[in-house]
Amino acid sequence: MGSRFGWFRPVESASTLLRRGEPAMIEGNTNHVRGMFICLAGVLLGFGVLMVHSASITSWPSEFERVYLSRHLVFLAFGVLVASLCAWVPGRIWYRIAPSLFILTAVLLVAVLIPGVGTKVNGAQRWLRFSGLSLQPSELAKIALPLFVARIIVDNRERSCKWYWGLLRVVAPIALTVVLVVLEPDLGTSLFLALSCGVLLFVGGWPIRYFVACLTLALPAVGSVFALKSYQAKRITGFLAAWNDFNEAPYQLKQALVTLGAGGVFGAGLGKGWQKLSFLPEANTDFVFAVVGEELGLIGTLSLVAVWAGLYVAGLSLLRQLERGSFAFIVSFTLLTQLVLQAALNMAVVTALVPPKGIPHPLISYGGSNLFVSIVSLGIVVGLSRDDRRQVRH
Questions:
Q1: How many domains does the chain have?
Q2: d(CA 283, CA 289)
């Protein structure tokens, strides 16, 4: 496994340094990197509060701006509280409760599909509502599924079983989750979950032949989903039109590009953007990156990209002490990569680099479930990064 991750080679593992009798060096370096990682996450969260407040302003000022901000701050505070607790939960606890978390998430994914239980918005039944609060179970799957699949990979490695049984144990929970999310319908999130699990399986040492076999079986299913949903095909044709004939591009995509271009290099100034007032749809959620471009310009967008890059590099440095292939390493790497990948996909959608899909910008967009899950994911990464000094397979 070590040869597959060349970018870890310059830094020796914690176990090697411990054999040399250098625990103080490990602790000092790790604490420094962990502090940097948490600071960068804090920068993103603080910037997100500013952008949610600014992007929520409309052409008809009302109480809604304050409602958006107050709700965002409530979810932010709750997420930080839970993430702080998760940062002190050892890996062996996550290993033990992974099956229970997955079962709970699967039950919620089934419940959201039941008429009268799940809430349907714009033809999609993805939310559970309780006393004014909403929960999106597919967001919880971004944590529960990696934890459970990582445990199965470690279990398969440590027990002797037939190859087909080990393959089935890994594929079954992924397929179940993806199918339930597709039924909502939410093709974008289902593909994102499948991609995240692909990253996890690669890091976990899954044989390439298994990837080839699964992709061969999955491609016809994905093609049939696209064929059954006409609006999915329209998104792709609209995306292609944006590059060939701008006038034929989808309204959202045109407004996003216009909003980005309106900011120029330095931007109109924080809170002074015009496109968000009536023209740019979903300005405080899926297209908040476009608002960043209009108000803070190219400098603002590139700075945001730089902070995300810094967070990822700091996170990878934090994971260097973990043993490759351990439960802690597999889960931490997956959650970290998943979060940064979601941010990259959101930016790609706004800049018309990929077909449009409702993917919020983690830590920056207004939201409840996504914001909470993103913050908790960071807390789990911080907590699991502490594990390798004491134990390490689980």
A1: 1
A2: 8
3-class DSSP state of 345: helix
pLDDT for 1 beyond 60: no
3, part of any domain: no
Domain of 367, in residue numbers: 24-389
pTM higher than 0.70: yes
Residue 4 is assigned to a structural domain of this protein: no
Q: What is the pLDDT of residue 3?
A: 38
Residue type at position 243: W
Within a domain: 13? no
For 104-123, write each residue's pLDDT tens digit: 999 999 999 998 888 887 77
Question: So what's the pLDDT on residue 120?
Answer: 82
Q: Residue 302: which of 268, 332, 266 has the closest Cα?
A: 266
- Report the distance separating Cα 333 and Cα 330, nearest Å: 5
Q: Please give the structure tokens belonging to residue 137.
A: 């179970």
pLDDT in tens, 114-156: 988 888 877 788 888 877 678 899 999 999 999 999 999 999 8
d(CA 248, CA 256): 14
Query: Which amino acid makes up residue 78?
Result: F
- 370 lies in a domain? yes
User: Tell me, what's the pLDDT at 337?
Assistant: 97
- Side-chain-facing half-sphere of 39: CA atoms under 13 Å: 8
| DSSP conformation class of 48 | H
Task: Kindly report each contact of residues 345-354 with a partner whose C-beta sits within 8 Å and lies 24 or more positions away, as own/partner.
Answer: 345/192, 346/286, 346/289, 347/289, 347/301, 347/305, 349/286, 350/256, 350/260, 350/287, 350/289, 350/290, 350/293, 351/256, 351/257, 351/260, 352/239, 352/242, 352/243, 352/249, 352/253, 352/256, 352/257, 354/239
